[in-house]
Amino acid sequence: MRQLSTPGVYVNEIDSFSSNVVAVQTAVPVFIGYTEYAKNGNQSLTNVPQAISSMAEFLTFYAAPDSASSGAPRATFAYSTKAMTFPPCAFDSANPRFNLFYGMQLFFANGGSNCYVLSIGSYADAITNGTSPADYAKCFSTLEQSAEPTMVVMPDAVLLDAAEWKSVSQQALIHCQKMQSRVAILDVWQGYYPPDRTATDPIQGSDGESGFYTIGGLGEDFNQYGAAYYPWINANIVAQSAIDFTWISAATFGQFVADMGNEATTVLFPPVNSQTNPRLAAYQSVLADMLQPAPDELSDPARLLAVDKVHETLNKLSPLYMQTMAKLCTSVNLLPPSSAMAGVYTRIDNTIGVFQSPANTTIVSAVSPAVSLSDSQQGELNIPPNGLAVNAIRSFPNHGLLVWGARTLAGNSDDWRYISVRRTTIMLEQSIKHAMQGYVFQSNDSITWAAVQSMIANFLQQQWIMGALQGAKPADAFSVAIGLGSTMTGQDILDGIMNVVVKVAVVRPAEFIVLTFRQQMATS
Which of 87, 105, 257, 448 lies 20 to 30 Å from 505 when distance is taken between CA atoms? Predict the structure, then answer.
């Protein structure tokens, strides 16, 4: 009490209410991958988490100034006459695909907003040096300094080989376990192949030597902090009108032109009365324009106009050209779903709450899953013997494409089986943890204990009202215990330890709805 020396009236204000717990943000993903460029002015953003909130901001930092591609990777694909398979056209190692740019478009299309981007290198560096787990190793230690991200998304991890993908995915899960404030959304490696129990099966496949290279190879450590989605999706991010013959790899371009020439002489413009078709020469001139210069030398604006003219002509006349462009478009838009799912998480969190499972909802800009799954096939994904559950993306009649799974990789855990339970618990833990910082070094006595108990109970009651906790009344939904003889001993107090025990009944999804019907006798 202050010392009074002058006669008068003094006012003392005493707080009647305890401090509040403020719920932390739950939908702040960090995207890790390769970008065209990574600078903020003169400052390099390589291996630096950069906050953004729109695609325009992404282009500001990660698209090279005056870039014709506007930050998008310009992959090329091998031309093939084979029937449509997945992928329809093989990726070209000289100009490989990168998924982060298109992943960001999927994220924002599905309701994404605030997020972080962590560039681990440029396209040029990745092409020159190859993609490597070492590119990811540094980023996880960097992310330990960032408290805000709640999701880790790595759309470019599937560019690694099988063993490297497994290693990086395990590092991400270990990082999430260490931080206890985020989850990893994983893509299935080569998730465009069917689960047919062959060597290419992305769920149960094995190389016969090192064992499982797929989800099953991740092991059971830290899996409560991860969720995986299968299969990849056929998106409509890149329009077919934007794809022309320059997307064909240099190694297979000559064969493509040769096949176009053969189509011209045998199908489009066959001989007339044993004489050369007069229209053939003009068409062959168009084919010749395709080769001057090579398709990867497109820096001249005049040449770009010529490409557009050739593309327009061939697209009208040649079935082979149209089929090849359609296969290229499918290949370009065959994307891993993790970035889209980060957007779905954000959309659900912002419209309903983190306690709502991010399932039974569509993926915007996704046309179809790359693999059609049956109920029995999904059953093996959802409840596998090893417990490493994989969430299915399926198409249903009259409903379209839906996310049809809500499990973490810890499918055998009664505690952490569901994504919504894991993420809700993280939100509760981190919110209370941040609020408790204000009580560090406070007196470890009954007054402080009462304030802490009231503060946490008020927060949990609000969460119960919002629907995050289940129970007919607050006492059924949560409890907060703190005090000497309850959660602490005299020795704890001597050691400066304040123990708080919080119990919560988190809402769980109705994953299986069973309807029972029985006939009854007529009563009237």
Answer: 448
Q: Report the C-alpha gap between 468 and 478 in whole angstroms.
A: 11
Q: Which of 344-353, 356-365, 380-389, 451-460 has the lowest mean pLDDT?
A: 380-389
DSSP string, 419-447: HHHHHHHHHHHHHHHHHHGGGTTS--SHH
Residue ranges and CATH numbers for the domains of the chain are 29-237+334-404 (3.40.50.11780), 240-331 (no CATH), 443-524 (no CATH)
The answer on pLDDT for 57 being more than 90 is: yes
Q: What is the per-residue burial (b if ≥16 Cβ within 10 Å, else e) of 463-486? A: bbeeebbeeeeeeebbbbebbeee
The pLDDT > 90 percentage for the chain reads 65
At 209-225, the pLDDT tens digits run 444 456 767 777 789 99
Distance CA 377, CA 44 (A): 46
| 249: amino acid identity, one letter | S
Mean pLDDT of the chain, nearest integer: 89
Long-range contacts of 124-130 (CB under 8 A, 24+ apart): 125/34, 126/34, 126/96, 126/98, 127/94, 127/95, 127/96
For range 466-472, the mean pLDDT: 95
Q: Which of 205, 510, 231, 201 is nearest to 368 (CA)?
A: 231
Please name the helix (run of DSSP H) or strand (run of DSSP E) that holds residue 29, with its range, or none: strand 29-35
Sign, CA dihedral 466-467-473-477, equals negative
Helix (H) or strand (E) holding 95: none
- Main-chain phi, psi angles of 504, to 5 degrees: -135, 145
pLDDT the model gives residue 91: 79
Asked whether the predicted pLDDT for residue 498 surpasses 60, the reply is: yes
Q: Kindly list the distances between the CA atom of residue 515 and the CA atoms of 263, 287, 379, 512, in Å, as whole numbers in the listed order.
A: 59, 63, 19, 10
- Give me the helix-helix angle, 301-317 and 280-290, nearest 10°: 140
CA terminus-to-terminus distance, the chain? 82
Say which residue the tokens 């810890």 belong to: 410
Q: Which of 309, 155, 303 is CA-nearest to residue 232?
A: 155
Strands (E), 252-307: none
Grouping H, G, I as helix, E, B as strand and the rest as coil, residue 38 is coil
How many Cβ atoms are within 10 Å of 105's Cβ, its own excluded? Answer: 21
Please give the backbone phi and psi of residue 310, each rounded to the nearest 5 degrees, phi first.
-65, -45
CA–CA–CA angle 138, 142, 145 (5° rounding): 160
How many Å apart are CA 455 and CA 458, to the nearest integer? 5
Q: What is the rounded radius of gyration, in angstroms, for the C-alpha atoms of the chain?
A: 29
d(CA 419, CA 410): 10
Q: Report in angstroms the alpha-carbon separations of 117 from 17, 127, 139.
A: 40, 20, 11
CA separation for the pair 142, 278 (Å, rounded): 66
Position 377 confidence tier, pLDDT thresholds 50, 70, 90: very high
The model's pTM is: 0.91
